[in-house]
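Service request form, structural biology core

Requester: graduate student, group of Dr. S.
Request type: structure prediction, single chain
Budget code: on file
Notes: please return the result as structure tokens.

Sequence provided:
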Amino acid sequence: MTTPGALHPYNPGEDELGIRLDLSGEALKAALAGLLAGGERHGGIEQVVEAMKMKASLFADAFADQGRDLTPEQFLKLCMFMPTVRRRVTEYTEGEQFVTLRDALVELQEKTAVDFKVDRFQQHFPKGRKHRWIRDLAAEVLHNSNMELYPLMTRWVWDRKANSGVLREIWFGPDVDNTVIDAPDNYGMYLKLREELSGYLTDNGIFRDVPFYVDLLCAQVYAGYISSQGSAFLKADFASEQDSFLFVLRLVGLDGVPAKTRERDDACDDDLDLSEIMTTSRLLGNA
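Core staff response, request fulfilled:
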């Protein structure tokens, strides 16, 4: 697929969406190798996939009736698996604020155009920098409750305004750091990205549980970016390559960190408490 020392795009072809994504074969190859190696050090990537299946089943059950019967307690348990929102959701975990949130989540599950209902979901909440996580909440809930229909659409996968995310890290080009990627931030783009990553995985021998491996591959790519930034995102200093796989577990919500509530210490920041990794260990069968 590639020639040593040269850049080559990995582009399986166009589809009816008319979106072209030029992805770097070298970047994908390195990410897949890192993912499999990291998973092996943590009991095998298959066990991580099984934990992700468990997570998906919890969301599917919670939103089987569009979430109409969702309780604050159930929502908080689900938040543990949504790393992009769990530290910011505090004010919506009780009282009328929770009712507003639940009603918006029920509406989000309606069978309407995806981009439309994600935008509509955000209209129920304040705008501004402090509430950017609302977009991620919609993306996490849709994806985790129906992975087949909804690809992962969080901002860490692609944030067009910031020109950052997984897409940028795997983009093909000689000077990506100084390139503004002209890719839309919509459902069609995320579908196309999933299609191409799925194709890459099957081309490289992964034929089962591909949607879960796509998520893990994305997490591995972004974990590499986080690690290269000196772990500033997690405010933690992982001393070894093995520890860096915890970035991957965090991004897919398997690091065992509970949602922040009013009862929890407000001084608690977004550090990754290694004692809480035991939750993940139980999911993976290691404890």
